[in-house]
Amino acid sequence: MQRSKIAGIGYYVPKNIFTNEDLKKYMDTSDEWIQERTGIKERRYADRSGETTTTMGVEAAKIAIERAGITPQDIDFIVFATLSPDYFFPGCGVLLQRALQMKEIGALDVRNQCSGFVYALSVADQFIKTGMYKNILVVGSEKHSFGLDFSTRGRNVSVIFGDGAGAVVLQPTDLSTGQGILSTHLHSDGSSAEILAMYNPGTHANHWLPQPVANFDDAEIGEMFMSHAMIDEAQNFPNMDGPAVFKKAIVKMPEVVEEALAANGLTTADINMLIPHQANLRIAQFVQHKLKLRDDQVHNNIQKYGNTTAASVPIALCEAWEAGKIKKGDLVCLAAFGSGFTWAGALIRW
Ligand code: UT7
User: Fold this and answer.
1) Cα–ligand 1 centroid distance for 156 (angstroms)
2) Residue 133, pLDDT score
3) How far is CA 4 from CA 34, 66, 136, in A?
4) If one looks up domain 180-192+240-349 in CATH, what number appears?
5) Residue nearest atom 29 in ligand 1 by C-alpha distance
6) How far does residue 38's CA lie from ligand 1's centre (Å)?
7) pLDDT at 207
8) Does domain 2-176 have CATH number 3.30.1490.20?
C-alpha cells in the first residue's frame, strides 16, 4: 500500500480587486460591518471578458503541474470541485481537460461546495492508494461574482464571496517516507440542506423550499426549470441563514480536526499548520480558540480574497507554503464546512 503526496501546488486569483467600498455602490452596507462580521477587506472578481471557473482552474493547474515536474499530458485523472460551474452541464473537469490538451483521461466533478476541495482530495487519495492512477490533478475553483445578488436584499451573502482557484497534483509515495496524506474524513447532514442553497434552476418541483416559487403549480411544463417568477423572487441567487451556518460550522470544524488527529494518534500540539476553510474570519478564530492553537499554527487569508468556497483551502494552503510557513515534515491539517451541510478534514505530513 502506498500513500499519496502533494507533488505540486498552485493558485490563481483574478487581478480585479473589489473592496468593501466598491460594494457600497450597489447595496446598503459598510466597510465597518463587513470587516467586523467577516474580517473581509476585499475580494477578487473574475475579468468579465473571459475568465471563468474553468480558466482560473487551468491557471492554478498549470502552476501545480509545473511544480510537480510533469506536463499536462502526464495527468491521468482530474477531480474538479466547484459550485459555480461554467455550464449547468457538462462539468468543468472536461473543459479543463480540453484547455490543457490532456489525454482522454477520466474527469470527475465534485459538488460539495465549501468542503468540495477536501472531498476531491479524498477521492483522489483513494485512487492513488489503490494504485489506479499516478498523477491526479485536484482543482477547486469558483467564479461567484457572476451569480450574486448585488442588491441590498442579497447583502448577507454577496459581501462574503470572491473568485479564485487552487490546484494540487497528487502522486504516490512510499509509506516508508512518512510523507503524504495520512487520512481524510468526510461527513454530511442533509437535514439543513436548504439553509445555504441556490434553489433555481433546479428540479426540486417546489418541494422543501422555505419560500416556494409563487406560481409554480400553474407553470407550463417549459417554465418549471427557470421562470420569470423565479427570477423576480431572486431564487436564482444563493440563499443563506448565516447565523445557523455559523453555529454549526464552529462545532463541526473543530470536531473533524479532532477526529483526524485521533485517527492518527496525534494531538493539536502536533499541528504545524491548520488551513481552515475561509468562510468567515470569526469562524476560523472560533476554531483556533476551541483547539487552543497559536496564531502561527493557523493560516487565514479571507481578508484579501473573501470566501472562495471550493478554492479557499487550496489557495490558503499554497499561500502558506509559498510564504515558508509549511516545511517538509510538517503536519498540516485541512478543515472545511459548508452547504449541505457537508464538512471534511484531512491530515497531511508535508
Ligand atoms: O462558506 C460556507 C458557509 N458560509 C458560512 O460559513 C457563513 C456563516 N455565517 C456568517 O458568516 C455570518 O452569519 C454572516 C457574515 C453571513 C452574517 O453575519 P451575522 O453577524 O450572523 O449577521 P446577521 O445575518 O445576523 O445579520 C445582522 C444584521 C441584520 O440586520 P438587523 O435585522 O439586525 O437589522 C442584517 O440585515 O446585519 C444586517 N446585514 C448587513 N448589514 C450591512 C446583513 N448583511 C449585511 C451587510 N451589510 N452586508
Assistant:
1) 5
2) 98
3) 39, 18, 10
4) 3.40.47.10
5) 156
6) 9
7) 79
8) no
